[in-house]
Amino acid sequence: MRKNPRIFSLMLTAFGLVIVLGIGGMLLFFWVAVLSFQRGHDDWGAPPEFVARGEAARLAQVYRREGSWEGVEPRFDVIERQLRDDRWQSITLLDADGQVVSRRVGTEPMMPMMPMMASAESMSSRPPRGATPLLLPVPPEDVLSSTVTAGGVAIVPANPVQMMSADGQVLLTIPIQLRDETVGALVIDYASGEGRTFGFANLARGVGAAGLALAGILLGLAIFFSRRISTPLAQLNQAARALTAGDMQVRVEPGRVREVADLALSFNQLADALAAADQQRRQLTADVAHELRTPLSIIKGRLEGVQDGVYEPDQSQIAGLLGEVALLERLIEDLRLLALADAGQLALYPEPCAPAHLLHDTARSFARQAEEQAVALHVEAADALPEVLVDPQRISQVLGNLVGNALRHSPPGGQITLSAQVVADEGVAFAVSDTGHGIAPADLPHIFDRFYRVDRARSRSAGGAGLGLAIARRIIETHGGTINATSTLGHGTTMRFVLPLEPASDGTMDRALPHQGSADDQTLPA
Question: What is the C-alpha to C-alpha distance for residues 481 and 479, in angstroms, rounded to an integer?
């Protein structure tokens, strides 16, 4: 099976392509710039003798156009600007008689300023026209003695002459010819040395070294930034594997890259949620086992007593056993309702209902119990309230649970009020308020949790299994509403839920699943 490439390899490849394209583009741009510059400066980087030959040819054209060396100064200015360099010591223009026409000095000349005297012997031994003269080491005193005649006038050679002293100073004489006639000479005094010539080889070496150095730096940066992204992702992958293996305590440190840090935070939140769900699952299993074990133990004990003759199989024993079976049946039904609600399959049969009608029906159901406990039961709801589209049986379950809890915690002489009112932009708010003992602030956030009891010492027969409020919350949420509680110790508690006037947007109100609820659905234990 082919493996997918690692993100580090992909990022490094991407960075590498950027580096190659960037450096290649830089070199290409620089090379084009050099070529463009060279087209405008044909003698740039060329040996001095070639520069001098080109200028001699241009001076010949000036002589041909003017017929003499008059007016040569503007051209000489151009030559001076083109040859301005620390190698050039001086440049001199001679006429056909060896007289100085024009002379420019760059720095203090290191060689005699007059050209070499052309003798018959030397003229015959010089290279033919067009050939590159050889550089021969000549002491300065020999050059001086061979460049000036007895009358102090230079002799213009017929062919280029180039001489170099022992310290590398070169005297170059280029004859200026027009129609095979020598009309003058260009004499250049400059410093020799290949190390001072800025040619294309040096340019290529310099650009190559700079490119390699830049590539190394960019590659290092590419590796650094690639690892800053790939390393946190690798840690996240290891943490995910550990979480899959059952380690609920594994967490990852957020990276320095924002998106990777957000991913790490999301993973940690997921791990926290899974850990909480796992804890709830374990707690639910333990609570269900505990709640089932108690009635089963009672039933078993009484049956064993009847079997052993300890108890008589009379009506009282049978009634006690039926009561425990009813409690067990109610617990199982509550768990079934919670399972259906959690799976989103709780059956609903919505129909338009008047809020005041729902409250009055609930009050009538608990009127006798309230009278026996000497608790006043009131309903405050206007008949003109808008109807809500709800399942009346499920909402009656919720109201019955809330009123039952209020009666259980209200002392004689207390009061329970059932009310309903319209809340703008929310729907119809139902409330069940009592004047009982109230709920402690530490317990208030957990009263809707499964198997949670505010009074730990309360018996199951007196207070239920602690599933009633959990079921009520799930029923209200299935209707698209919300439920909450407010309480003050010593003053009472208010349970409030809001139902929207329109059906739930997630389609839960459209479900019509087969309903298999029991008669116990009307009253949910707390």
Answer: 6
